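[Automated response] Your request has been received and processed.

Submitted sequence:
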Amino acid sequence: MNPVLDWTPPPFPPAKVLEGRYCRLEPIDPARHLDDIWAAMAGHDALWDWMPAHPPKDKAAYGELLAMMGAKPGIVPFAVIDKADGKAKGHLWLMEIRPEHGVFEVGYITYSPALQRTRMATEAIHLCGAYGFSLGYRRYEWKCNNLNEPSKRAALRFGFQYEGLFRQHMVVKGRNRDTAWFSITDGEWPKRAHAFESWLAPENFDAQGRQKTSLADFMTTAGAA
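Generated structure:
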């Protein structure tokens, strides 16, 4: 039970634009983002298999979902903007935010096929972590259904440490969900951040956009794995 010296709870994260090299995170605004997000997501219902919501049936329903995100207390929802063309291609939340304990989570990650497996997809996770830790948060969380193997692999690739399994944690869409928990702490973040930044550097990619060194290798080199 180590004492936490000089601890001052951080503020709730203000909704603001987070600028990266490849993507920009903008607070969700249906009036600005709906057209692009619907164009990127329509017809890809499998993206919602692990989400708590069902895929929106039409553009109007997606607009209602984005409006719900913008109005929902206790979260900070972002649209992920591709800086190459200025279009929104996915969205995610800062959520489970507990300033009194210095904890925040990235979740509700909904990436269109155009966003998946891109530098933007990785940079968005880095931007969220950098923002939370810059405010003074102590713990960055990732949680997912234990059956969601791609999400668990992504968490490890991004430098989150597996902590354990919460059995029968939720009922989602009428089914039991055992939840896998992962985290990065403030003491670990500098090495994780350095690995992210090294992987995202333009010189890490060849003329065809292929990575030269993997993020996992950078995590290991930085002592962050």
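Summary generated for your ticket: The two ends are 25 Å apart (CA to CA). Residues 89 and 114 are 7 Å apart (CA to CA).
If you did not submit this request, please reply to this message.
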